[in-house]
Design brief:
The protein is an alpha+beta fold. It has 2 domains: 2-184, Alpha-Beta Plaits; 189-275, no CATH class. It has helices spanning 2-23, 28-34, 67-88, 110-123, 144-160, 177-184, 195-207, 211-220, 225-231, 236-250, 257-275, and strands at 42-50, 93-97, 100-106, 129-134, 170-172. A 5-stranded mixed beta sheet has the order 2-3-1-4-5. It starts with a helix and ends with a helix.
Amino acid sequence: VWQRTDADAERRRRAGLLRTALDGGTDAPETLHRLGLRDEAMVVLALTLVDAAPAAPDRISADRVSPALLAAERKRVADAFAVHLAFAHPRAVTGLIGDVAYGVLPSGDDESAVRLATEFLTRVRSAQQPVVGIGRVARDGAELARSRSGADRALRVLRAASGSHRAGPVVRFDDVHAEALLLELPVPAKDLPSGAIARLAAYDEEHQSALVDTLRAWLDAFGDVAAASAAMYVHTNTFRYRLRRVTEVGLIDLDDPDARFAAMLQLRLLALAADR
């Protein structure tokens, strides 16, 4: 019990130091020195557990796990994460802050961080789904807070996309910058959908049609009717007819770049809202 208490106290002490270093500020340089880090290039990794995918029967949803068991599982995975990073680099620092395990890897290459995180997730076993967000490379200690912010924003995208696997279990902030910006837009859910998308959605619901999907496929294919019709498994003539109905029902001018951008933006926001 004494050994466990001492280990927990040391773990909390280092997590507190790591929090100070990641927050930046005047105390950050001294804190980095106390953690054994130098004023060098570093990458922040952020790991958390999200609800397991419905398609994975061997995983257990967090909704059915008690808070105590979930906290113990976070601690176990965080400890394994610390061992993995320490094996890769002797001066790597990790700490569990809230429900996120942060790791600081001395490296000027975020690809090595992606590789290490991917290797860890292939080895760790958990009833939950571990995901890792990776921030941009910090050239020195002064940029560490910016790298942490990027890791947090990448993690937010992973949380929103849990169960869909579109983003993958490990992502760099630079690879999901657009999705992160969309999640940060101050658009209330009650305002979606609106305009042309709302008219198309209402028509689809009443007539069991697929005009919204038709517009989405056309936009995703950059206006290539052949590619869009193949994605929807319909004949090109059928797709052209549906696209004509999109313009008639939605009252949208697909030749207008602003109208196309507005429709694409709203469809992406709806997809993100559906994933949450």
